[in-house]
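Page 42, continued from yesterday. The earlier attempt failed because a stray header line got pasted into the input along with the sequence. Redoing it now with the clean sequence only.
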Amino acid sequence: MKGILLVDKAPGMTSHDVVDHIRKAAGTRRVGHTGTLDPAATGLLIICVGEATRLSEHLTGLGKVYEGHMRLGVVTESYDMDGAIVEERPTPELSSDAIRDVFARYTGEIDQIPPMVSAVKVGGERLYKRARKGETVDRPARRVTVSEFALLDYELPLIHFRVRCTSGTYVRSLCHDAGQDFGCGAALNSLRRTAVGRHSVEDATPVADFKTLEDVETRLLPLGEALDLPSVVVRAGARGLLSRGGSLTGRDIKGECPVDQGWIQLKSSDGDLLALAQIQTGPGHALIVPRRVFMKAS
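This time it went through. Structure tokens are written below.
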């Protein structure tokens, strides 16, 4: 059994709670998630089962889409409404243009400081552990890309928004920073992840619906449908070499290779994922070097 599951996480569960639930339903320990959602958040969580766990790093790095609400007039320790309120201020009258103007300041490549209540490590220790001790430490800014920070609706003190961003972006921090620009503070009030890469929450199944092995097996997406990476079809005569980890050339694939660097999926003519490989350029030619082979040696 191998593949990925598109799971709609319920509020109040940790991402590890979802993994444990799927492990019990599937009867296997080889299950992992590909991007944490805070307990209060809902939405799409991609779960890897069996050999699909070897795809985790590629799924974790996919772009994310969120919809949520921020609450103006409050500042909290965690930058969301689960944290202790440290300051309250009056909410000013704001127009839609004024809100969009602030949101635009956080669109594009930005340097973002993660919240103290986060899993980021500083000095070898998770920030949330230091926050529990009452400590506040300097956190290095991280470069992230926010391709969209859109106003969907508002009824103050709540603002409904959508964010499209790279992996590692803290939407809580976006709310906190925007709140400072509004002059009244803000905290994340609710959050729902609606997409990861090309996978949508509309195609996901509520976690409670996974009760049995059959529930898992019938909803598994094959490895060949998991990733957004470019792909090529491997000729039948080259599959023996590939199964033993041997490098391929352009003669071993059908058609032209769509990229000249980076990662690529090697598939059968039926769309099954045979291996993940990297393109390695050499004198006069390029090699397709397998890094993770999913077919049995022959």
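Notes: The mean pLDDT is 91.
Reminder to self: strip header lines before submitting.
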